[in-house]
Amino acid sequence: MKEFALKYGCNPNQSPARIYAGEGELPVEVLNGRPGYINFLDAFNSWQLVKELKAALGLPAAASFKHVSPAGAAVGLPLSDTLRKIYFTGDGELSPLACAYARARGADRMSSFGDWIALSDVCDLSTAKLIQHEVSDGVIAPGYDADALEVLKSKRKGGYNIVKIDPDYVPPKAETKQVFGVYFEQGRNELKIDEKLLENVVTANKELPESAKRDLIVALITLKYTQSNSVCYAKDGQAIGVGAGQQSRIHCTRLAGTKADNWHLRQHPKVLALPFREDIARPNRDNAIDVYISEFYEDVIGDGVWQECFTRQPEPLTPAEKREFLDGVSGVSLGSDAFFPFGDNIERAVKSGVRYISEPGGSIRDDQVIATCDRFGVTMAFSGVRLFHH
Predict the structure, then answer these.
(1) Please, is 344 exposed, middle or buried when counting C-beta atoms within 10 Å of its C-beta (0-12, 13-18, 19+)?
(2) Residues 211-235 pLDDT 10s
(3) How far is C-alpha 368 from the chain's CA centre?
(4) In the annotation, is 268 catalytic?
(5) What's the rounded Cα separation, in Å, for the pair 334 and 354?
(6) Domain ranges of the chain
(7) Which of 185, 269, 348, 380 suits 36 as a labelling partner, its CA being 20 to 30 A distant?
(8) Which CATH number describes the domain made up of 3-165?
């Protein structure tokens, strides 16, 4: 297939639209559905992310994308009972790939609603069954087991978008795009992200355990395919908070930190014990949990929309209880796609349990940022590389 006609571009008024190969054939085959313009942007960006994660860490990887940035990304580490509960996986056996997808989807379930999924490995039945019960636009993978493909084809009344990609495809060295009639060309970002980028530890605390190195690699590879400015909080082999496309670095740090806090608070005993009605669908549960955790819950506690989700009115999770729970969080890693210009980013990150950081360095205030890390006992490595993505 040399080209594929799209229904329209970014918006319905932008027609005609297509994807096509400059030379040779397209590296993808559409097995089901009719993916759109944004779907393919998500598909190609997310595929690069999971392929790189798998190569870097040797584990199956998955990503959940929305609007050309990851809502979540992860490798296939086993899930605790608590994570299985908050990710709605049920009690069945999960393959490593299924664990990777559950983690990627579970990082920010609000943002992942209607996501595009990328899988580093051939999609198996275990993974397909998880995808089956989530609201999603489509999936890209290097292949699909026959039983998994049948499960996925049943989604969206048979219209679910399923794309197979050639895992051996290597794109040209130069990337070209057109904006306002003007062509832009640059070399592909083929920077290899590995532990070598973490060797220049500039803080007094030099401790950097293997688990933190793994999580920092997850964060940095995630950032490589996130619209800039961006920061990523990671823990236990998965992103837990991504701040994308903000004009200010501190706003990235705050946004991603709030998402990381929400990920942790979903594991609070009061949240785990919320008295949901059995017939409440997952998206409504996610929305209700988000409102329950938020600072606005007491303003809407009597709102019928949310009360309909519960068999009884839940006891509020107070600000003091949330702060006490989050104060017990530690061992979180944080990556930034460019340098932190001020120490306030570190101060905010520490409130979300950050202990390990990787950023490029190069700010005129590096000394201030390092001093702030030292004040909190944070380990920070200067990677020396910027990861802007536009």
Answers:
(1) middle
(2) 999 999 999 999 999 999 999 999 9
(3) 30
(4) no
(5) 7
(6) 3-165, 174-265+326-382, 269-316
(7) 185
(8) 3.40.140.20
Known catalytic residue at 264: no
| Nearest C-alpha neighbor of 287 from the set 265, 270, 309, 303 | 309
Q: Which CATH fold topology does 174-265+326-382 show?
A: Cytidine Deaminase; domain 2 (3.40.140)
Catalytic position from the list 51, 66, 164, 322: 66
Per-residue pLDDT tens digits for 110-157: 999 999 999 999 999 999 999 999 999 999 999 999 999 999 999 999
Q: Is this structure's pTM higher than 0.85?
A: yes
161, 229, 287, 345: which one is catalytic?
229
CA 75 from centroid of its chain's CA atoms: 11
Decide if 345 is catalytic. no
Closest to 265 measured CA to CA, from 327, 355, 333, 354: 327
